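Archive transcription. Copying these from loose printouts into the bound notebook so they stop getting lost. Printout 1 of 2:
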Amino acid sequence: NAIALQATEQHQSAKRIAELDAKLSEEQLLRRQAEGDLTRSRADFARYKEEADAELSQLRSQVTKPMVEIAAQAKEEGRKCAQVAISALMDQLEEKDSLKAELEFCLKDAEARCAHLQAKLYQVTRKAAED
């Protein structure tokens, strides 16, 4: 009877060991699958990050190039505007210089006429005084 009881206990222990081994094997299999999934996920993440970095770099260059072109165009437009303004100021200065020269000529001409008229007035006044 004790032998039968011991055999039953050994059988149950062996059955329990087999169940635990199966469960352990299943957990190890799940762990390996999870590790494989994690490795693939890390690889996918690294690939996606690399692709995103490349796309970001490309987008930056697409934005930077037009910004540089716009800055260059703005600089050129500013230079052109400055040239136009300087040219207009130079034209005004030349016009003022021309007007100044004309006014100086008119002033000298008026002074000469005035001197001539004063001389005539002096002659007329002197002649009138003599008469």
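Printout 2 of 2:
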Amino acid sequence: MNDPNASSSSSSSSQPTLDRAKIFVGGLSWQSTEETLRYHFEQYGEVVSVEVMRDRDTGNPRGFAFVVFQDDATVGLVMNNLPHEINHKIVDVKRAQARGSAPPSIHHHKQHSGGSGGASSGNHYNNNNNNNNNNN
């Protein structure tokens, strides 16, 4: 019975299909709402849903959203009409990717390696220890 589950998870082509008609919209103005995004993007095709991501504690917008279209071809139209200006601000529009499948963000990578100490920091300590041992 594990094999059917494994094949269903590996044949999760239905999951990417859902993401195929989905875009990420970043760099949003704080005034941008689901309604303003829907109004902007429905000129390209039928919008199924719009979700402006909000801070869990404050409820304030986090500056990005996801828009899902009825048809994947609409994403192509949107991407062919860059740049997009919403609420007098040029926004960053990308085809959405399932979590874990997108390459890590440049900003997240820098923050992660700087905050965690990374392997290079460990090498500095090892080099310093080796230098100290050689000096003794």
